[in-house]
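Hi U.,

Before I forget, here's the chain from the pilot set. I'm dumping it here mostly so it's searchable later in email.
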Amino acid sequence: MQFESDTRSRILSTARDLFHRRSYADVGIKEICDLAKVQKGSFYHFFPSKQDLASTVIDDMADDWAHGFVAEAFDQELPPLERLDYMVDAAYFWQKAAKDLEGRMPGCLFGNLALEISTRDDVLRAKLTSVFEKASEKFFETLEEAVTLGVMAPLDTAATATAMLAFLEGVILLAKTRNDPEVVRILGPAVQTIRIELPSPH
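Structure:
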């Protein structure tokens, strides 16, 4: 059983790294198997298709994301507005560390996959949508608390949360395009200026 677990983990880790550094379409099952040092039969024992593998990669990364820097950034012990700053800082240092190590920014795995496959694979698109919705909920909860505490004027917290996430993803994409994590450091703090007003009562 331990051997099977190790084999599955190697496949998953290899695929996750390749999908993030390159692209979903560019990476084939044979390359994954070769680098993970497993037979194709073992691959298909765990993952019936490349789509199933990608779906598991998304789940695996989302779990690390949720229990890693996202959990740290949105720690309830932090004042709400500090959480937003922490999230930007975490994104910056994550991308900078990758750039320092590999010479280029990998960007956000979820954003990369969304750009690549959203128009071609509804299953994976739905999976990515769920990841983004959960991330947006963290912004929403933070904004709700900030408004309740009076440190932020009333606003459409749901729409603003989505806009903040979209802004941060866009900043990371721009930084990736320029291969310059400093773009995240410079532009990221502007996330705090995003405000969407509540709908006017009729």
